[in-house]
Amino acid sequence: MTVPEAAAGAAATTEDAAPLLSLRGINKSFGAVHVLQDVDFDAYAGQVTALVGDNGAGKSTLIKGIAGSQPFDSGEYVFDGHAVTVTNPKHANELGIEVVYQDLALCDNLDIVDNLFLGREVTKNGILDEATMERRAQETLAGLSVRTVKSIRQVVASLSGGQRQTVAIARAVIWNSKLVVLDEPTAALGVAQTEQVLRLVRQLADNGLAVVLISHNLNDVFQVADRISVLYLGRMAAQMKTKDVKSNQVVEVITTGRSDAIGGITNGNGELK
Amino acid sequence: MSATQTTPTVATEDAPASRLSRISRLQALQILILLVVTIAVFTALRPDTFLTGFNIRGIVQNTAIYAVLGVGMTFVIITGGIDLSVGSVLVFSGVVADKVMVWYGGQGWATVLVGLVAALASGLAWGLVNGVLVAKAKVPPLVVTLGSLSAALGFAQIITKGLDLRDAPQALVNDIGFGNIVGQVPTIAVVAAVVVVFGIVLLHRTRFGLYTYAIGSNAEAGRRSGVKVERHLIKVYAFAGLLAGFAGLLNLGFFQSTTIGGQSNTPLNVIAGVAIGGTSLFGGIGSVFGTVIGLFIPIVLQNGFIQVGVQPFWQQVVVGAVLVAVVYVDQLRRAAALRGTSPRLPFLSRAGGAGSASRKGSA
């Protein structure tokens, strides 16, 4: 099955489980601009961790560091209990980290199966093994409870925005990934399609994956996220559990960076730091 | 799976078509019907001469060299590029092969083999030059191959001082150029058919073909998925050059001449065949099978017009009209299919949409 860690994921949702991804004291500068300053960040298996913050807060820089496309300057990067140094996207993929970027980067003229496997095709004696790829594509989509796609041999050009997002997300999880970062997955979608994608995001976490959701839409965040991390001008302003806070409190942290309203900076377990 | 176990409900109703069977639904099918109708009309008008073994033999012989060039051209155009240099590279490779074979001496198969290596190497070299300039230097393919069109022909004329060479070895001329492999089946057509089948498998069944479509569809998506886009583009142009070199040797055998002045329309005829065959000049869509059908149409028309006593120059007029009409109808059909989101039409795409998508930078 595509998500063998699923059963284990259920256990990981308990309160005291160690985070799958743990960043400590992350710094990143572009020239003189100190974009990330001593940032701590945790993401847990089986949970959706929302990463929110205003434009320029450093969200993109943080995920590019996690994905290895722009490695961090300093700080501790612990993944699955091991301290690692992720210096390129391939390395991140090998660890089981996948990022779905905002512009989905799908090939319109290719069908769903081709897109899911692009760059990592299954071949037999140099010939594409279509049967195997179709079967794995079916399994992956079924594992994500995707029912909206008529045929996996449909070309992507004929899909709706929500379906395209689904294909992009499926591509991220087809290789037994453990952590999936979703960059604004609902930004360009209508109401019904947003619902569809949010259900999928929840499904990923329920299947045992750690999901990092970047979003500007707090409705979405409160609907699916277990935890919320707020970046403010390159610093981690707060990490909190969704059930402990109200939407307006999160808005205040996003806009002011001050977390007085929620009782000081927390480490995500509700403890004062 | 976790508690949210679900039954697979995704699209098992229509069995996923394989890549090869999908191409049968391409525009190529309509073009095939057009070709069959054309043949039927000429057969009805000239029942004694048109559909004879002798005449068919002539038609396939005339199509063979174009078909070899067309395979490479199809790949290049699917990436969203173009190769105007194939005619000149064909001439250049023929000249080099001829010179090398004369230097080696003899009229036998060993000489032909040496010539083959020389022709392939010459074609590959020009293909690599094209590929590197397109992929690495980012010069538009139209400009790069217009340049090599001029330069390759210039070098061929420098080598020969502008005079066609006519001293190809007997084995090449008699056995490949005019020979039959069995009965009345011309060797040159069988050789071309092998290249075509190889091209079909390469395009529709391998990673190489898939990446060719991917680059023409959305190069940035390919790059993010781990496709080495530049390297693949170089390979595609090198492949087209290699086939142009091979066609140079076939051409030398068929015409017993390097045909220096006779190939100026070749790239345009080949591109027309590719376009008539349903390959989108915007990239991302196309098939080798369609190209072969698209190349047959002008040659069948010319042959038929001569036989029914129409001035053969009408062929050029008809081909021009067919080319424009076919591409126009195809655009309408794809746009309609896209609105209807029909899953029945493979490779459908808004013309140009892929190109603009690929220019989107990463966030």
Automatic annotation (TrEMBL), chain A:
Record keywords, A-Z: ATP-binding, Nucleotide-binding
GO terms for MF: ATP binding
Record-annotated ABC transporter domain positions: 21-258
Top-level taxon: Bacteria
InterPro entries registered for this protein in UniProt: AAA+_ATPase (IPR003593), ABC_carbohydrate_import_ATPase (IPR050107), ABC_transporter-like_ATP-bd (IPR003439), P-loop_NTPase (IPR027417)
Keyword match Ion transport: no
SUPFAM superfamilies per the UniProt record, alphabetical: P-loop containing nucleoside triphosphate hydrolases
Name the record gives this protein: Sugar ABC transporter ATP-binding protein
UniProtKB/TrEMBL annotation, chain B:
A Pfam cross-reference name: BPD_transp_2
Bilayer disposition of the protein: Multi-pass membrane protein
Annotated compartments: Cell membrane
Lineage: Bacteria, Bacillati, Actinomycetota, Actinomycetes, Micromonosporales
Protein name: Sugar ABC transporter permease
Bilayer-crossing regions: 28-45, 65-97, 109-129, 141-160, 181-203, 236-256, 268-301
Keyword terms, alphabetized: Cell membrane, Membrane, Transmembrane, Transmembrane helix
Native organism: Asanoa siamensis
